[in-house]
Amino acid sequence: LDQLADKYFSDQFTLTYDDVGAGAYAEEEVEAEATEEPTPAPPTATPAPEPTATPEPAADTGFTAPEGKALFVFYNNSSEDFNVDVGPQLLQVPAGQVGQLVLDPGTYTWKGHSPGGGFYITDANGNTAFEITVTAGQVFETGVQ
Fold first, then answer.
1. Is residue 120 a contact partner of residue 34, using CB atoms and an 8 Å limit?
2. What's the rounded Cα separation, in Å, for the pair 33 and 114?
3. Longest dimension (CA), the chain
4. What is the pTM of this model?
5. Under 8 Å CB-to-CB from 103, ≥6 apart: which residues?
6. 46 sits in which H/E element
7. Distance CA 28, CA 135 (A)
8. What is the pLDDT of residues 26-44, one digit of tens each?
9. Bridge partners, 89 (sequence order)
10. Cα(134)–Cα(70) distance, rounded to whole angstroms?
């Protein structure tokens, strides 16, 4: 044992490529035989369509922004809960509910997704983040179907 330890576990130990030998590469490669008919791929599940952003409602819904502020209103007409990130703020809107968020006037990026990220709000181009600029007294309304 002392001889082995002196040889392999000391600063005098060296190992070269020739010392390793063929190792696992010494085995012969075997080509797979071609079968007459390829095995069909198993069917894949089709994912549910992603919710899409809806246009702002044209009718007056009765929401009023607080003085000197803007109001972000989100209609969740889907069967999924949604989290809406508006700038650094989070608005959680349960399925079938309407959520509101008071904002200072300014420009914000907002995005919406189901908790856990199963669904994202996208536009026709696949964008998931949307920029808005709101002014004092403005009510910005959007939502998901």
1. no
2. 48
3. 92
4. 0.58
5. 69, 70, 71, 72, 86, 87, 89, 134
6. none
7. 74
8. 555 556 555 566 555 555 4
9. 86
10. 6
